[in-house]
Design goal:
Number of domains: 2
Strand content: 5-15%
Low-confidence stretches: 237-242
Number of helices: 11
Structural class: mainly alpha
Largest sheet: 4 strands, mixed
Number of strands: 4
Radius of gyration: 18 Å
Helix content: 40-55%
Mean pLDDT: 89
Distance between the termini: 30 Å
Shape: globular
Length: 242
């Protein structure tokens, strides 16, 4: 989570939050930035009392695209070998889920949402909660991180697909003064933390796309996403490879 003297940014995983954080850290006045021990993907209920009045910003993403990004990030696609060592340490459940990084995207997502009852080792607490609630991981992150803010109307939710403009509009609408250098950084800085991958539609068959549509219906309905959306561009990857 990024807390400043002017606003709070709640970082939902895999929605472009690292880009937002880096732009702010590089170009906002240093004395605006509040030092906290809140986790990177902390919840709105973690916001200290003295900053709870501030406007809040978060991002949403097409759920089909989000899952492709999530998978490739944890698989370490296009990243140095030590990335997988870090995943083994921090996300051992994903290693089990992918049979030690050997399963492709469709098999991994089916393991995630249609689990083998005889293999409980891949059932992280967060995933078990998603099963109980009948939702996908992105919806669960939203419920966990943003429920209070959505309920009381204190958060503006931009789209990953229009991240730069939506963040700029949020800041402008809340009278946050911005320098020209900040605007240049926001609109011209290249994306960060991307994984090597193709367009998300190439990873789904009809049944898998429908499975995710059911799990992610809350976000799909709320923001009008469809499987045919343009989505994020390809990053030089073969969708059949890991």
């Amino acid at each position: 989570m990024l807390i400043t003297e002017k606003f709070v940014f709640i970082h939902v995983p895999k929605t472009g939050g690292d880009f937002i954080r880096r732009v702010c850290i590089r170009r906002l006045p240093e004395d605006w930035l509040v030092k906290t021990n809140i986790a990177k993907h902390g919840e709105d209920t973690d916001i200290p009392e003295e900053y709870r009045h501030l406007p809040r910003f978060a991002l949403v993403r097409n759920p089909w695209d989000w899952h492709v990004s999530w998978y490739h990030y944890l698989m370490g696609s296009g990243r140095p070998d030590h990335h997988r060592d870090r995943v083994r340490e921090q996300n051992p459940w994903f290693v089990d889920l992918t049979d030690d990084f050997t399963l492709d995207f469709p098999a991994t997502i089916r393991n995630l949402y249609q689990p083998d009852p005889d293999n409980p080792s891949s059932r992280r607490k967060l995933v078990r909660r998603a099963d109980r609630e009948g939702v996908d991981l992105l919806t669960l992150h939203f419920r966990r991180q943003l429920s209070e803010s959505i309920a009381d109307g204190s958060v503006t939710i931009g789209r990953f697909e229009n991240l730069r403009h939506d963040f700029h509009d949020f800041l402008s609408n809340n009278d946050v003064p911005l320098t020209d250098r900040f605007r240049v950084e926001l609109f011209e800085r290249p994306p960060v933390n991307r994984s090597k991958r193709s367009r998300y539609q190439e990873y789904f068959d009809d049944d898998l796309a429908a499975l995710l549509a059911g799990r992610a219906s809350e976000i799909i309905d709320a923001w009008g996403y469809t499987f045919e959306d343009v989505g994020d561009e390809a990053h030089g990857a073969d969708p059949r490879s890991t």
